[in-house]
Every structure is written in C-alpha cells, then in structure tokens.
User: Fold this.
Amino acid sequence: MYQMKRVFLLVASLLLTFSVRAESDLTLAVSEGTSGGLDHARVILKYGGLADVIGHALKRRVQVVFAREFSALDDGMRSGRFDLVLARPSDYPARAVRDHGYQFVASARPDGQCLVITRQDSPLKTLEQAKGARWAMPEQVSYMAKFCAAELRDRGITVANEKVQYVREQAAVPFYLDQKLVDVGAIASYSGPAKSLEKTGHRVLHKSVAQPYFPLVAGKRISPEQVRAIQAELAALAQSDSGRAILKTVGVQSFDASSGQRLNALLAWLGS
Assistant:
C-alpha cells in the first residue's frame, strides 16, 4: 500500500511538472504561404534553430508550430494562441498587428517586390508601354496579385482595365510569356520564377517598391522589453558562423527590426 502511494505521488508530481513546463513554453507559428512540400517535422527542423535563438532571448522554451492552412494561422492569431508568428504572405502578420494586438519584431531581408517581366525579345522597354498589353498575374485573391495591383495603380495602370490572365501558380507566368499568350507578367521577387530569370531568359521590365517580407510578430505574452531582446539576438545572427547557418537554413539573408512602420502601412497600401 505504501509503495503504491509513493508511485501515485511520483506520477502525480511528474504530471504536474510536465504540465507546468508545457504551460511555460511559448509557441512560434510558421507559415510559408502556399509553398508545398513541407510537413510539420520538416518545418520544426527548418525553424528549430531560429526558435532556439528566440528562446535564448526570452529565457523560455519556444516550440515551432506549423500553420499549414491560412485558416489555422488566422484562427491562432485571433485567439492569441500563437505567442509568435513568422509568416508569409506579409498581410497576415500585418493584420495580427492591426487587429489582434501583436507587436512587430522584425522582417526578413531582402524585402519583397513585385517584378514585372517580359520576354527578352519584347519591344516593351518601360512599364508605361505595358499599359493596354496582355498580362499574366498570380490568382486574383492572392497577396501578390494585390501587391502588384497596388504598385501598378501607383504607376498609373489600373489592373481592372487591363487584359489579365490570372494563373494559380507563379511558375505559369514564364510559360504564358514563352507561348506568347501574354506580353508581360507579374511575379514575386522571392518566387521560384524570379530566382530563375537568367536561366529562363526573361527580362525585368519593372521592380516595385519594396515591402516587408516574412515578418515576425509577437503576441501579448511577450513584453516590449522581450521584443527588444529578440531583436538583438536576430541582429547578431549575421555576425557568427552558427548564426549565418541558421539564416541560410531559414532561407533569408538577415532580419530587419526597422521595418515596423512599413508593415503598419502595408494593408492600407494594398487597399485591405
């Protein structure tokens, strides 16, 4: 009887310890948008080093959570279940700040841009000459379609008045150009097609203004002092071999803590 009581108390103690430890953990939700090919295990492997850096700044364990669907990302931000969010497209972290009480921490470098591209042999030399041409753009509801539309609006081109073919995958834009189904295309600067322009032989006709890319925001359980501690740790990553390895694994050059005002203005610029 005595032994059973000791075992019961030991188990209860372990459960209590586990519960306290779990409650003290913080969550870092990661969303890579519509990028395919990643599962939860790979996301943890990819972002675990960054979570450890953030955890070192906070003196708390930070667990990576994969927000595969936008609905899960949005729900986690609305409820405050996610303590930190690292997400693209950038309008999700921007809404977290505007609508759900999150604080800006940093965004990734380089910034994001809309690239207007055309064929090498195209007679078009300026963006103004593309007005009235045939366009290929990412699907209409996507962040990048809104991004490019906002840039074109500022340059005097109203997308609603143009002949636009919307495509589900940005990789289809170069194909449409090659087949001469369109005259110009719009893609994200951080997309696969943008990184392959030299190989595919397409020419950049115009680069948009730069906007924050892959922002990191922090929820209400993170104090302003803790945000500054995270920012200091992120800024130091590029100064060491181990830090640069983490940046390379995540796929960014560095983190920028000065782009908060631009993120705050992003939704109004997009018209959202």
